[in-house]
Hints:
The complex is a heterodimer.
Chain A: H1 3-10, E1 18-20, E2 23-30, E3 33-40, E4 44-46, H2 48-64, E5 70-74, E6 76-79, H3 83-88, H4 90-106, E7 111-115, E8 118-120, H5 121-125, E9 133-136, E10 141-143, H6 147-154, H7 158-167, H8 175-180, E11 186-187, H9 192-202, H10 209-215, H11 222-231
Parallel strand pairs in A: 3-5, 4-6, 5-7, 7-9, 8-10, 9-11
Antiparallel strand pairs in A: 1-2, 2-3
Chain B: H1 9-16, E1 23-25, E2 50-57, E3 60-67, H2 78-94, E4 98-103, H3 113-132, E5 137-141, H4 150-155, E6 160-164, H5 174-181, H6 191-198, H7 200-206, E7 211-213, H8 217-233, H9 240-257, H10 263-269, H11 283-289
Parallel strand pairs in B: 3-4, 4-5, 5-6, 6-7
Antiparallel strand pairs in B: 1-2, 2-3
Helix pairs in contact in B: 2-3, 6-7
Amino acid sequence: MKWQTLASTLFPDGHDIVEKDNFLRGTAQVGGQTIAIIGTTGHTSIGVEIALAQAEAILATMRDFPARPLVILVDTQGQRLRHRDEMLGINRYMAHLGKCIDLARRHGHRVIGLVYDQALSGGFITSGLMADACYALPDAEIRVMGLPAMARITKVPEERLIDLAKSNPVFAPGAENYLNMGGLEAIWHEDLASCVALALQTSVSADLRSQRGMERGGRKMAYPVAQAVLGVNHVSKT
Amino acid sequence: MSSYLEANARQRIHQLLDAGSFEEFLPPSARIVSPHLAQLDTPASFDDGVVIGSGRLIGKSVLAASQEGGFMGGAVGEVHGAKLVGLLKRAVIDQVDAVILLLETGGVRLHEANAGLIAVSEVMRAVLDTRAANIPVIVLVGGANGCFGGMGIVACCANAILMSEEARLAMSGPEVIETTHGVEEFDSRDRALVWRTTGGKHRYLLGDCDAVLPDDINAFRKAAAETMARYQQNSAVLTLDELEAEHAMLSKRLRDFGKLGEPMDIWTRLGIAEPASLPMLEADAFTQQTAGFRAGER
Lengths: 238, 298
């Protein structure tokens, strides 16, 4: 979906989002409230510049509009795969963006992520996956890698992976799989404007993804293992 | 001297902490393995490639985790990630003096790709939760596999990163970049270039790690203890001021070095007299020679 179409569907009460070099920034009206919007478009790769631009927008929102809710619109092919970005420390730039989102939450900003097109690996981990809750449109392509590449790396035939992917959401791309694993809170099928309004009202700051993954059966071990670590009866030797 | 590079995850954690103090949580005898690898006919490990537990560092109470590079390159799967998340949550409950993460990892485990990606994101948020509870998180990088992918991002969410000169910290591996954009973009077999670009010395000069250490577990132990001691007085909590300062620093870095194509040109721009000599220097000599020349120091 084009970001312009998305924005007018999500925010029928109006928005002033503008795009510059695949970076989206602006505000929108939701339920009589002004919301800050940041995001990316054009399946752009996330390099140091666009990571920094998104961080700047979040810091400005925290400075000038305390507690203003934030919506992150995600469309990225992942981190930029260039020597220059690595030389400049792209992992630090992406961590900086992730920390800005996290601190916004702690400062009382509600943060919602929406994957409206693509979300891959590093581009996703410091955007939608840092929100209070992340949502997706049904056709969103969310993945680390496709099954052909996975077949090459794991040396498991692709046909077998396709078969396994029917019963285990861990392997194959797709919004439905991320939903079952708790990585997405929900998939928005219709009436997107109501969905975003409701998401902003109901967001919680705690990370509930491993619980969701267990409840939905897509990631059964993450939550019990973390709980087991908390429950270990440790007797100090000193 | 006891090489950090050559030790395995369990040896590192035992030698890093006070002798005899380490107690492992969910040890291999508990046999908590990945639920996904068997389907791919891939051998599992009884600790899923990460050793976690509690111990003492110079008498202080710490929780620590050590990733095993020998098992799937230290990559993060569902169970591996959950052990790290559980440890970080437990640190808040137990109010320990610090969490020490000995990272050696390629990032997300591709065999359980989706679970690994979500898990790394959960670790990232858990690190920041731990810091928000004023418990410092200290990252050590000194293994042969470096610290890459999503875990390279996690490292930069910690309070401090300590690296050996052999260690590497980055996002995408050189092989991935070469495969995508060709050998002219990044020659992954050019070891010297790989180290100039991702190695401990370059990260130190840019300000992305706090120390370059010799490849010696005792050197890591000493540096980790000193870092932990700093947070007895200083808050470990991430503040808006700190993020604003980081933003200014990263913006300046892009302005100053964004048009350069070779890490050594950055070192020259920092004012270092003989940049070509840096890769050959021992850690201590390197730290002395570059004193006052790191990004932001002049």
